[in-house]
Each structure stands twice: as structure tokens, then as C-alpha cells.
Amino acid sequence: MNNLLHVEYGQTGKSSNHNDIGMREMQARAFDERVNQYLLIKAPPASGKSRALMFIGLDKLEHQGLSKVIVAVPEKSIGGSFQSTNLTEFGFFTDWEVSPENNLCVDGSDRSKVNGFQRFMASDNRILICTHATLRFAFETLSVTDFNDCLVAIDEFHHVSADGDNRLGGLIDTLMKNSSAHIVAMTGSYFRGDTVPILLAEDEAKFTKVTYTYYEQLSGYQYLKSLGIGYHFYQGRYIDALTTVLDARKKTIIHIPNVNSGESTKDKHGEVDAILDELGDVLKRDPETGILYVQGKDGRELKVANLVDDNAAERPKIQSYLRNIKAAEDIDIIIALGMAKEGFDWPFCEHVLTIGYRSSLTEIVQIIGRATRDCVGKEHAQFTNLIAQPDAQDDDVKASVNNMLKAITTSLLMEQILAPTIQFKPRSHWDGKPLPPSTVIIDDTSGATVSKKVLEILNGDKNEIMATLMANEQVVKEAIAETIPPESITQVALPSVIQSLYPDLTEEEMEQVRQGILQSILIGQQGGLVDGKDLPSDANVDTGDRDEASDNNVVGKQFLKMGEKFICIDNLEIDLIDAVNPFHGAYEVLSKQVNAAMLKTIQEAVSASKSKVSEDEAVILWPKIKLFKHEHQRDPSLNASDPIEVRYAEALAFIRKMKQQQMAKQGA
Prior knowledge:
Blueprint: E1 2-8, H1 25-31, E2 38-42, H2 49-63, E3 68-73, H3 110-122, E4 127-131, H4 132-139, E5 150-154, H5 167-178, E6 182-187, H6 201-204, E7 208-211, H7 214-219, E8 226-234, H8 238-245, E9 252-255, H9 268-279, E10 280-285, E11 292-296, E12 301-306, H10 315-323, E13 333-336, E14 351-355, H11 361-369, E15 380-388, H12 397-418, E16 423-426, E17 439-442, H13 452-460, H14 462-470, H15 473-480, H16 486-501, H17 507-525, E18 529-531, E19 540-542, E20 558-562, E21 565-568, H18 574-578, H19 584-593, H20 596-608, H21 615-632, H22 643-667
Parallel strand pairs: 2-6, 2-7, 3-4, 3-5, 5-6, 8-15, 9-13, 9-14, 12-13, 14-15, 16-17, 19-21
Antiparallel strand pairs: 1-8, 10-11, 11-12, 18-20, 20-21
């Protein structure tokens, strides 16, 4: 198995330490913004979003004049995160108390729950927990003004969509337009697999964003030291490849493939039996809990939960057992299909093994989140994606190639989400004190201004921009297979995404955002920044000044190691930034894990469906084409073995065709 990402974390304990009123770092950050009417909290699983909502909701009830707090969760099981909680024992001014009749995340009909919602709205009760569905159904029976002076909190906000057919999205839009309701939206993944935006741009602009990054969360743990995201490509049956990636000594969740996927055998129960055979010999099923006891091949007794079996008598027993796990020895392996993802809490989990391509980034974020809980004795968390390798003889090689490349693409974005986040700070805002790690100073003292909007985008929305870029599957596939020049991505596809997401930016602001994003990617690819004061004594330094070795011109500057030289990021040439292929890491993984013949097959499959050269791309590539002709003393060839040369040839043919058309018009 080859890890695309391996991140070491600082084990500072900051994210789990409490302040004097019982708040962890993320919760205190969110509480600081409590007076805002619309709050969007973006924070990882296990960062404490549910309790952050309790603190904010109670403050709005006690100090901001609101009368009710309504918490909506996607499914009943997640409602338990918002049960009555003693907060005063940790220093907060009051407790979170939910009356049993106001917990609608229980069994019962939709009608009875809507009735319960209506009773709550007409009563003096202050806190209600329900599902997204109950909120939608009840909303249809009430007037929008009934929600005046209420806080509506939406957990797992990525279930909302600006799509006209998404009723929860329409509900939020109506509340914002026609009521005085306050809204707190919470999510660990502000992406949707269907690429539909969560909110309309004009609605999202009204939200105050509180962002707590995965890197902050994981670095602040006490025990977890590292995280890996990796791939294993297999041929034949995935069952036969399990032994290469499954270590039964690790607490593992195995997600078998969807029955409609190419990796599935179409017999989910047979797949579970085959996995159990790989683990060892089944000894018994506990009649009280439904847990399987397996004699492992190393002699250890394993406890295995089968969540694939949807037997109405067995599954509830297993789920009940899993909800009450107290110790590491209580369970060893969980085998699941659609379960054990969102909202499932098993802190001892060390490894999530996912078989087959998952199209939804949100789903992958949630799956990885199952392994990234902090826990005594757990130093490393691992996500492994077991993916079918295309067979050059297979008629369906194109579909296999697409799945392989899209799976790698999705985790490339996870690499950015889980690694240290580059933060941008104007030099005019810097007081000269030591900068936080991975902070880039933007020089705005020499006439170039950087707007607040640009800073907000660079410091808070980079991942959303990259997620939207990755939604362009053709561009991404060509980029990973390296069949198009990086300039086609950095100067054509990326600006198009930025313009679509932020149409109100000026051309100068768009270029600042574009360069900032590419600079972040380049920094990540080169291993991060080095502060001027930390440069090695014998460093080969390029500051852009003649007196390169003096102390005066390295203080307060950041450097990037490129080869044997440390280059001041203030002096990064635009050509270097534009030459960044955001997906180069994926190509390296691909080229290391498959042989040359397979790599050629993948490139050919991508080239067979490649996108047409646009006028913008042709203009961008023209200097490269001229340079190619100068170096090789010939035009680029459409029959070349190098796919980049082929792209140059296609662009040249496009340019000549456009020139002929213009000459024909002039002649007419």
C-alpha cells in the first residue's frame, strides 16, 4: 500500500483542553461569535460541535432575548449528541436541559412527531431535538413567523442544498428572508457529492464563518500522532487482496462496496463470509449481542460486528452493543455497507478500509472521521481505499480508469484538508512578533492592496474552490494522467472556478486569489515554509537581493526549499507558480503503483475522451508551443508518445484553424 498522505501531528493537547468555563478550543472560538444571527461552524468530527451549539444556544436564550432553540439532526441516532448535559460543573452559567417530551429523535410516526413539534412551539418549553425530516414536515404546518426569536440549529449541514428541489435548503432560505430566526449551521464537511452548492451565494454571505481545521484538531490531540491516507490497487477479486491491507491486530471498520459498483460481487452476505474466512474461523454468535467470535489466524480471539446483515432481529442488538462500547477489547472488527459512517463514534478505531470508489467527498470525510478520534494507546490512524486496477484487456477499461482517477482525486482534496493550512496575513497587519506556522505574509506596503474579501477566501474557502475545480472530472483526469500542461489548469480551469464562485471580485482580486491558492499548493508540495530565522547556517538563499546572506533581509520572511536552494516566497516567479500541477502527487502515486504498460493504458483511455482545446487554453499554451519549436526545431506532433506534446500539437492546430477562419473573413 502506498500512502498519498502521511501527516505527523504535534500532540499539543490544545484541542481537548478546557478553559475556565468548560470550553475546548473550537468551542471557545465559536462562542466568541455567539451574537451573530447566522453562524456557520465548520469543524471536524469529534471537535465538539454539539456542545459548542449548547453554549451558544443557552447564551441566546439567557442573554440575547431568544425564546426557543430547535436542533435538527439528519437521523435519530445522532440526536443523542444533544441530550441533557451538565455544564455548570465545568464553570458554565447554566445547564443544557432537554425534557423527554421534547426529544423527538425517538421511535414513532411522522404525524406524532409533527404534533410534538407543534406542542413545543405553543408551549413555554425552550429546547427541542428533532430530525431534519421532522423539521421539514412541521415547518409546512406552521407560519414562518412562528420561528421569530427562535434559534434553528442544523447539524450535519452538508445535507442542505441550494437546489430548488431540496426542501431543507428552501426552508433555510425562507427563514432568512421572512423571519427573525437565528441560524447555527454545523458541519464537518462543507462539500456535497453532487456538487450542488450548500447555500445560495447571497445567503452564504450573511453567515459568519467559524472554521476549525482538521490539522488544528488533530495536532491538538494528546495521543494520536499521525494519519495516513493510502491506496491499494488490485486485480481480480478484492477478497483475494484483503490480506495485503487488512491487519486484524488493528481496530478496523471495513466498508464493503455498494452492490451496484464494479467491485461488488452482488452478494453482500457472501462477501462478509469471505472476509470472515480471511480473518479466521467463526466460533459462535453471541445470542444476546449478535457479536461474532472469530478464532484469528494468529490465535487471538476476535470480536466482529456484522452490520451488513439487515436482519430485523439481529441488527438492533449489534447496534445497541456498539453504542455502549467502553473498552478497546469490546470489539475488534466492524464490517459495514452503508452504516458506521456519519455520527458513528468508536474512538478505538485505528483503520478504516474502504473497498471501491466513493463518489461523495462528504462520505469520505465522514469515513476518515471514524478513525481520527483521540484515544489512549492509538498513535496512528489510517484510511485505505482498495480500488480495482484497470485491465488493459477489459472492455470496460474506461470505467475502471475513471473510478481509479476519481478516487485518487477525492483524496487529493483530503490531503489539503488534513494537512497544515496555509494562512495569509498582510504585512501591514503584522506586528513583527513570531508568526504562527504556515503563515504567509502578503506585502501590501508597496502599493498593492489586498481586500478583506480576498483574505477571507484564501484563509477560509480554499478547499471549497479546490472541491469545485475537482468537480470538472475531465480536467482532473487529464491532470492526473498528465496529458495536459499544468498551465491549462492554473490559467484556464482554476480562474473559471474562482469567477463562478465569486463573480463580484475584480480582475486584480481574482488574480490574487488564483496566485494565493497555487502558492499554497506549491508550499505543500515542497514540504512547507521555513522562517528566515530558522534557515541553516550554510543555506543557499535566494532573497531577491544582492546581499543574500545578510541577516537583515531574511528576518520576517518565509522561504521555500526548491532543490538545493531556499527561495523567498516574496520572489516566487509567476512562471513557477503557473507550472504547479495540483494533481502531480496523484500522478506519482499512480506511476509508482502501476507498471508502465498500465500507465500508458490509463493515459490512452483519458486521451480518448479528452476535452477540446479552448481558445483561452490555446492562448495560454502559445508561448510554450513557440519554446518547444525553438528547442526541438520542429512543430509538436499529434503522433508523439508524450501526451503533453500532443496537447501542444492540438493547440497549434486550433490556432492555425482560427487564423485561417480570420483570414477567410478578411478576404470576404
